[in-house]
Specification:
The protein is α/β, with parallel strands linked by helices. It folds into two domains: about 160 residues, Rossmann fold (3-Layer(aba) Sandwich), CATH 3.40.50; about 150 residues, Dihydrodipicolinate Reductase, domain 2 (2-Layer Sandwich), CATH 3.30.360. About 35% of the residues lie in helices and about 25% in strands. Helix 2 links the parallel strand 1 and strand 2.
Amino acid sequence: MSDTRRRFLGKLSFGFGAAAAAQSLFVADRRAGAAEPSGRKLGFALVGLGKLSGGQLAPALQKTEHCRLTGLVSGSPEKARQWAQQYGVPEKNIYSYDTFDRIKDNPDIDVVYVVLPNSMHAEYTIRAAQAGKHVLCEKPMAVSVKECDEMIAASRAAGRQLAIGYRLHFEPYNLEMVRLAREKVFGGLKIIEATVGFAIGDPSQWRLRKALSGGGSLVDLGIYALQAARCIAGEEPIAVSAQAGLTDPVKFREVEESILFDLKFASGVVASCASSYAAVINRYRAAAERGWFELAPAMNYHGIRGRSSDRDGVKDLQFPDVDQFAAEMDAFADCIQNGRPTTVPGEEGRRDVRIITAIYEAAATGKAVAL
């Protein structure tokens, strides 16, 4: 490993590292909760034992330095018991959704990770905060700005931290995109492209039911493109325009299939973004005065790849593959243990929800919406 890469990865240790200062405009109003004892691993309870928890979060917790899986919340007692046996979780730390509030009396649980359908994020974040627990909530934070405000207020009232599951804030290739833009390695930034999509499967899944998801490809995938554009630009958009596409009105009778949206920034930088549940697209690209840099694929759990322009043609970016969820949870635990604010607070999640709301308005009206 080169000295440059070693120094960069050292700065990566907990969250945005070198890029954190560049994102200070996103986190100026964060508030840290009280510090927890730093001599032990913090106990995490997973609320919702679906595909993400089973395939990513529970395995990632076995790799973390500062966390351990100590609680399970599920509507299926049988599944919860199986998980408890697999991961060594005591039976007393298993909860149903009806008994969830009893976690307030359980000192084994420090952090609640909400991994439920989007429309349930607000309820369980608020209940967890009222039970005196720190909360890590999957993205999107909620289905409305009002819910975001309620989640932030509940966490503040409880003196506990609220973080949003933006795993790519802890991924080295994505961090490099931010660094290249912020340090103007290729000169001033001009244009950003961010496109994310895949062909969604089971038509009966909750993501296609608006009452549970709050939206379609935009809230599930487009939020990655939005995050990429905001973080690479290093500023907030001042206006959005958008248009939706539909090729399968049966499957997508409740939520959008595809949506294209453009962001305008005060600096003059523009971003062209897209999300889709019908097409495989997965790239971020930034064009600057003297060159370009890109990721493709850009937002996978593993196997992200990057390139940039070079005097000799094209240069490959090279960083180690990391478990993004383990890094995300370790970063949050470190913040809690040391009384420092998270780099992905509820206020950051609220910003995305506010912009997403404007994107939907722009797509519905056909007019640009000022932010």
